[in-house]
Amino acid sequence: MGKTIAQKIFDEHLIDSPFPGTYVLKLDRVFCHEITTPLAINDLVDRNKDKVFDTSKIKAVIDHVSPAKDSKTAEQEKVLRDWAHRQGIKDFFDVGCNGVCHAIFPEKGYVRPGYTIIMGDSHTCTHGAFGAFAAGVGTTDLEVGILKGVCAFKEPKSIRINLTGKLQEGVYAKDVILFVISQIGVNGATNCVIEFTGPIVDNFTMEERMTICNMAVEAGATSGICYPDMTTVEYLWPFIKDEFASKEEALKEYSKFRPDSDAVYEKDLTYDLSSLEPLCTVEYKPDQVKTIKEMTGTKINQVYIGSCTNGRISDLRVAAEILKGHHLAEGVRGIVSPATTDIFKQALKEGLIEIFMDAGFCVTNPTCGACLGMSNGVLAKGEVCISSTNRNFNGRMGKGGMIHLASPASCAKAAIYGEIHF
To answer: What is the rounded distance in angstroms from the CA atom of residue 80 to the CA atom of residue 273?
Structure first.
């Protein structure tokens, strides 16, 4: 019987299987940020186990509240900062040279096909875009990962989602993943890995693949995975060129992390997206979705463009192209947060930052702050935001606020009209 990508990765990393259906895997990467990791660090210190399994495999960043907004967040950042220096973790990205974790780590070339990756963050599934198994974990698993370089998982069941057809102009990866979640529901992939495949995914850039994998967890998935191909190799080439004689050789090596033709799936779903329209969420769950056309006329107070879902340079280019020569509607505030400092610099070089500022947007440093209602754009009670982020839970962006998740393009259009607009 053939194997899925997850099964192949598990086979390569298996250390032990102490209980039926449980697999202890060696880890290639442990990613850390200042919100969840300090809990693990402090507990390890309290238990006299203040050490790490491999300094080269741990990557850390301050990103959720950057820079600190109060004494509590400053203390969390200090714990991570002191630990990184104490342990000699070279790849630590502090305020000023940082970025949203799920944007900066791929940008630095830390993800490879076939890798096992954990982080104390639910959107770690983003990194599956490279053909890796990447999962968000709790504090205990994170501690063990930091200390021992291993993590236990349940049997990797998989769902294959085949996306066919050709997207219409004005339809983006964010619309695609919102559609998928609306079809299978927020619990539709619980305890499973989603393999995204088909012509739509084949034609996606790595940034677009990261967008759809990023929101796999919103359907309950442990991880989202795309098949490694030449697009993957081209993205990684600056980081792997010394490891392979040619791109073709790299592709051959990475292709072993593609599913077998007779692999068995829990579900095998196909969607033709030829007639898909731009979408956005309604109410408070990511599977509650309507078309932008249906939502046209919905008044907004804030527009937010950024996050690990849609804060990359391609996202900023799309939004800036729409906003060029226009201005925010009266009474609407706009916030743009490039996902990393390198993306910010590139956007500045291309004139995108000037376009946003001329349109009346506040352009901020890279941070997750607004996405989870911690800083940088929190909503007041009764306010409405159209956002390129990934969660619309009740109170997510501020107590009593409403979030409509949409693509950067739909966010930019809404900014001009002061309402969701087709």
So the answer is: 44
Q: Exposed/middle/buried for 267, CB within 10 Å: 0-12, 13-18, 19+?
A: middle
Q: With a cut of 90, say whether residue 61 has pLDDT above it.
A: yes
Residue 227 has pLDDT above 90, yes or no: yes
- pLDDT level of residue 1 (50, 70, 90 thresholds): confident
Q: SS3 letters for 333-388?
A: EEEEECCEHHHHHHHHHCCHHHHHHHCCCEECCCCCCCCCCCCCCCCCCCCEEEEC
Q: What is the mean pLDDT of residues 370-386?
A: 95
pTM score, whole prediction: 0.96
Contacts for 405 with CB less than 8 Å, ≥ 6 apart? 174, 178, 280, 281, 286, 387, 388, 389, 390, 391, 392
Residue 99 CA, distance from chain mean position = 12
Instruction: Look at residues 145, 138, 148, 114 and name the one whose alpha carbon lies nearest to residue 128.
Output: 114
- Please report how many Cα atoms fall inside a 13 Å half-sphere around the Cα of residue 386, on the Cβ side: 29
Q: What DSSP designation does 328 have?
A: P
Lay out the sheet containing 58-61: strands in order across.
92-93, 58-61, 29-33, 116-119, 133-136
- 3-class state of residue 402 by DSSP: strand
Amino acid identity at 41: I
Q: Please state, in angstroms and rounded to a whole number, the distance separating the CA atoms of residues 209 and 203.
A: 10
Question: Each residue of 392-417: pLDDT tens digit?
Answer: 999 999 999 999 999 999 999 999 99
**pLDDT greater than 90 at residue 92:** yes
Of 212, 248, 19, nearest to 125 by C-alpha is 212
